Amino acid sequence: MSVDVQPSHIDQIKQTNVGLIYRLIDQHGPISRIALSKKAQLAPASITKITRELIDAHLVKETEFPDLGFRGRPAIGLKVESERWQFLCIRINKSTITIALRELKDNLVVEEEIPFLMTQSQLFLNCLADKMDDFFFRHQSVIERLTAISIIINAPVDPINGIIRNLTYCSNMQDIPLKEFLHHRTGLPIFLQHSITAWTIAEFLYGAGKNCQNLIQLVIDDNVAAGVITAGQILHAGQHGVVEIGHTQIDPEGEPCYCGNIGCLETVVSIKNILAKTRYLAERCLDTLTYAIVSNKSLTIDSLCQSVIDGDSLAIEIIHDTGEHIGRIMALMVNIFNPEKILIGSPLNGVKHILYPAMQQQIAQRSLPGYSQQIDIVATQFDNTGTLPAAALIKQSLYNGELLIALMQG
Ligand SMILES: [Zn+2]
To answer: Which GO terms describe its molecular function (predicted)?
Structure first.
């Protein structure tokens, strides 16, 4: 390495290499140092040095494994040491929070959903801290080495500075300094991310997007948003966090959207709007199963999906149209990101046999054939609940070295 390299660059290289070695040990362990050196494309001396530091910090340990090495002796491999390393994972919802204690090897120790409703920013932080203290008190017998706190929320966030930008559903609270507040109270590294971005990271690390370097995850629920992984990295990780595909115009003559524009994709395909459209159309198709559901006031997204499964022509048409609308916008995304997979996170996955082909056909018709032909549209493995996406943020910060360096410095 030349002498004029800036110290901060050296730190960055060290962090990247430590993260890479840790990830390879986590994914392939037990693994020998020689195999590690080949996979990481780093010199054996660097491997020896980095693994020594990880062993000293109790993040990695040596183990014998059955692969017979020199003269038939068991080989010595490295694997991740996960005992007693724990993380707190928190999901903040509109009126509840879910708090979980998890271990490094992704095991869930305990998880609880607790009522949580606050209307002022300072009260919000104090109330969150009280709920965490109560949780610690109730579960003190199982808490060991707590090393970081990861929080996800369905709201715009500044992940770098750990600020919740605004909570429209909570008296429009602005700029809540969550990271600073919790770090001051606990001394621990704090991670904050939009729940959809974290969900995409979880699918990429453990779910339907595993081993896929380029993917788009589309979430169709009350809101329509997306997460993008490109060349193994999440897009916009350091910014507000979601790809605002839901606010792309699909119908210039359409309904006004709360964002200020007209006819956004969300005003057409969000679950609320699909149900509104269903009510409108059912009143005009009185001989359908869907009309029967609407007229006895049992229309929900699940009953609409059941109507599709039962073969009702109106319900099928509504879902098919929804797929076409989504496909038109996704075609543009496909041309930009050339993904291997499109993951769909939605209650509409129950009728994917109608939804996905309608999307696929629009994508094929409207994007570069070389790109669109190889795309798989698949359902996400997880849904937008629970604390696994928060755990994925911890895993990501180990793999990029950021949290490892903090833990190695004690
Ligand atoms: Zn909009």
So the answer is: DNA binding
User: How far apart are the C-alpha atoms of 17 and 400, rounded to whole Å?
Assistant: 8
Distance in Å, CA 224 to ligand 1 centroid: 10
Residues 346 and 391 reside in one and the same domain? no
Whole-number Å distance, alpha carbon 120 to ligand 1 midpoint, is: 27
Task: Give residue 190 CA to ligand 1 midpoint distance, Å.
Answer: 32
Ligand 1 centroid from CA 257, angstroms: 5
pTM of the model: 0.90
Specify whether 35 is located in the same domain as 118: no
Q: Write phi, then psi, for 98 (nearest 5 degrees).
A: -110, 125
The protein residues having their C-beta less than 5 angstroms from ligand 1 (an ion) are 247, 257, 259, 261, 264
Q: 326: CA distance to ligand 1 center in Å?
A: 15
3-state secondary structure of 198: helix
CA dist., res. 174 & res. 324, Å (int): 37
Neighbouring-strand partners of residue 79 = 61
Per DSSP, what are the bridge partners of residue 111? 100
Residues 303 and 372 in one domain: yes
Q: What is the pLDDT along the chain (410 residues), one digit of tens a residue?
A: 444 556 677 788 889 999 999 999 999 988 999 999 999 999 999 999 999 999 999 999 998 877 655 566 677 889 998 778 899 999 999 889 999 999 987 789 999 999 987 766 668 898 899 999 999 999 999 998 899 999 999 888 999 999 998 887 676 788 999 999 999 999 999 999 999 999 999 999 999 999 899 999 999 999 899 999 999 988 876 666 678 889 999 999 999 998 899 999 999 999 999 999 999 999 888 888 888 888 888 899 999 999 999 999 999 999 999 999 999 999 999 999 999 999 999 999 999 999 999 999 999 999 999 888 889 999 999 998 899 999 999 999 999 999 999 888 87
What is the 30 CA–ligand 1 centroid distance (Å)? Answer: 49
**30, 64, 80 — which closes off a domain?**
80
Range of the domain at 61: 9-80
Number of separate domains in the chain: 3
Contact status, residue 38 vs residue 27, Cβ threshold 8 Å: no
